[in-house]
Amino acid sequence: MSALTKLFQQGKTIQFKKNYLFISPKKVPEGIYQITDGFIFSYSQSATKKRIQTILKKGDIFPLAWFMNNSSARKDMFVQALTDGKAQLIEKEIFLDCINKSHIATLEIVDVLLMYLSVYVDRVENLEEDTVRDKLTTRLIYFANRFGIKDGQNILINIPITHKLIAESISVSRENVSRELKALENEKVIAFKERQMVILDIERLKEGL
Fold first, then answer.
1. 76 pLDDT band (50/70/90 cuts)?
2. Domains, the chain
3. Which helix (H) or strand (E) holds 157?
4. Residue pLDDT, tens place only, 108-139
């Protein structure tokens, strides 16, 4: 068991409902969270558009920017529950004390920060793709790598994915995303099972890039 997992097990267990707002420009974090069940996402919000930054899953820790630089959030940044779930909550001071005193915990948090950096680099590269199809394909491959569950030749994307969520994560209109997803369904590359996506042929999806 990792040092960070042991630390969070000493914290307070909280249950949250879908759409619960953890952080907003007007809401300071209660502490540092580690997700034990469910999904959470962060996004920026302007007057006209929502841009999803990242989706967090079981084991992820947030908000790291707050403990690193003592700022709660950007003025347009929100962290919200994508599903019902649970998390362990510890006070910021306890978290910092552990990081300062434990060499192992410090190395573990560096690994976490590097993982988040990789997520954001992936998002930037995704947004730089030229066409809607390329943006969508790159994002679906990312979802498969981060949230995918193998089921024979298929890959189940284990998050409640919607056309709107995908559109907001790649800064493309929902209508364009829906059109491209329908084309991929017709090509037997993907399918939808309730609110979850199934990638039927990951190699053909990659070939489309």
1. confident
2. 3-126 (2.60.120.10), 130-207 (1.10.10.10)
3. strand 154-157
4. 989 988 888 888 888 888 878 889 999 999 99
Laid out side by side, the sheet with 40-45 consists of: 21-23, 77-81, 40-45, 50-56
Two structure tokens written together for 184: 């991929």
Which residue in the block uniquely carries the two structure tokens 């989706």?
55
Catalogue the long-range contacts made by 157-162 (C-beta closer than 8 Å, 24 or more residues apart): 157/196, 157/197, 157/198, 157/199, 158/196, 159/39, 159/55, 159/57, 159/82, 159/83, 159/196, 160/39, 160/82, 160/83, 160/195, 160/196, 161/195, 161/196, 161/197, 162/195
**Structure tokens that stand for 154 in this block:** 């298929």
